């Protein structure tokens, strides 16, 4: 999801905040550490990039209608990549 959003010039908001006592819940801390580890290995595909001429490459099939919005637009990365509906194209590659 992060790479897909960055490929279109966006930023991914993780919506992780501390509890009232200032501590980050353990499950959220674990996810942040996992994302940090992934970025340590793959960060050059994210940091300092910009939108390319084409943000992605699709397989054959009908392209899905993607509603554009400034905030909280519905987004199901699995329907666009791994499990598209029958006859619908899937994203094969994203470019940054």
How does the SSE layout of this entry go?
Elements lengths: L1 H6 L18 H17 L13 E3 L18 H4 L10 E4 L2
Antiparallel strand pairs: 1-2
Q: What distinguishing features does this structure have?
A:
alpha+beta, 2 strands, globular
Summarize the structure.
This protein is an alpha+beta fold.
Describe the 3D structure.
- The chain is an alpha+beta fold.
- It has one domain (2-94).
- Helices cover 28% and strands 7% of the residues.
- It has a two-stranded antiparallel sheet.
**What is the domain total for the residues?**
1
Element order, helices and strands?
Answer: HHEHE
| Parts with pLDDT < 50 across at least 5 consecutive residues | none
Tally of strands = 2
**Number of H- or I-type helical stretches:** 3
How far is it from the N-terminal to the C-terminal residue, by CA? 13 Å
Side by side, the strands of the main sheet go: 1-2
From the alpha-carbon coordinates, what is the Rg to the nearest angstrom? 16 Å
Strand content: 5-15%
SSE class: alpha+beta
Task: Give the assembly state of these chains.
Answer: single chain
State the helicity in percent bands. 25-40%
Mean pLDDT: 86
Per the principal axes of the C-alpha atoms, what is the gross shape?
Answer: globular
């Amino acid at each position: 999801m992060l790479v897909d959003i960055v490929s279109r010039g966006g930023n991914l908001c993780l919506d992780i905040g501390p509890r009232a006592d200032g501590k980050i819940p353990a499950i959220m801390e674990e996810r942040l550490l996992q994302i940090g580890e992934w970025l340590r290995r793959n960060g050059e595909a994210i940091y300092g990039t910009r939108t390319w001429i084409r943000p992605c490459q699709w397989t054959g099939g009908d392209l899905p209608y993607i509603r554009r919005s400034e905030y909280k637009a519905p987004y199901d990365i699995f329907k666009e990549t791994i499990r598209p509906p029958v006859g619908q194209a899937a994203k094969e590659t994203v470019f940054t």
